[in-house]
Amino acid sequence: MGGTSLKKRILTALLISALFLAGCSSASTSETNEKEYKIGVLLSDTGLGDESFNDSAFRGLEKARDELGILFDYREAPDGDFESQLEELSKQDNDLVIGLGFSVQEALEKTAQNHPEQQYLLIDGVSELENVTSITFKEHEGSFLVGMVAAMTSKNQKLGIIGGADVPVIHRFEKGFEQGAKYINPDISISKEYANNFGDAALGKKIAENQIKDGVDFIYPAAGFTGVGAIQAAQEKHIFTAGVDSDQYFVAEKAVVTSMMKNIDVAVFNMAEKLVKDGSIGTEVYELGLAEDGVGLAAIRNFTLSNEQKSAIESAKEKLTSGKITINLN
To answer: What's the whole-model pTM score?
Structure first.
């Protein structure tokens, strides 16, 4: 119940912000650009208010609206009917249609084949279609750093990770976190569980509570809004946790030590900027990691790292970027 009301408050704030600023941007756009570029976006399953993946993309579009003068519209598909929403966006004369998340890939590719002249952007998946540009992230690199921090903060040397689904993108979070923790302590224990749901905060809280009963004192939830419940449970039980995708410190200000920043907002803004500049975003496949500012760590809070620990994290960043540290994703 608490998780649902929290999501509603966040969604309301996002929509009020979007409506208030829309009028401010439209007037300036016509004065500065000959063409008003339009972007349509289909959000992933959990929609706005997830405090994570979707909200980050939405921030990127708001920035593109305010700074570049683009117009944007969005759709949600909580029932999983991605194809009809994408079809609707494709018929609206948008210069670019964005699909968020691995779960929309099949529907996006079907729609792209039906509209070969339309430009599409797929985030968190790779498509071979000529009119689809793909962006993926090296979540394992940022998660490696979170694993290091978790091992440094843990008293019990028992960590937990909660995945939203048993899929490759979540495996990258998992593998990076585990290997980062073991980089600090090879004998550390890590509990893993898949929620098979990205939108159930109550379920995330329940899973986290079970892990905490087993002695886990740091939880890393890569599970969208389900993870919000796990973060809240960590605070209630007085253990540490980390956010994902966005800086989730405000969700539990006494428990969140850092967040694995997956800079979807930056990627979306950069694509909008390329669209305005070139009239097209091309057909490249982008893979964004530490070197490309695609992932990284939020500020460290609630725990003071020693100078030695800070140096170890900075050294790991350099080694991950240069390839001296490689993460096994198998």
So the answer is: 0.85
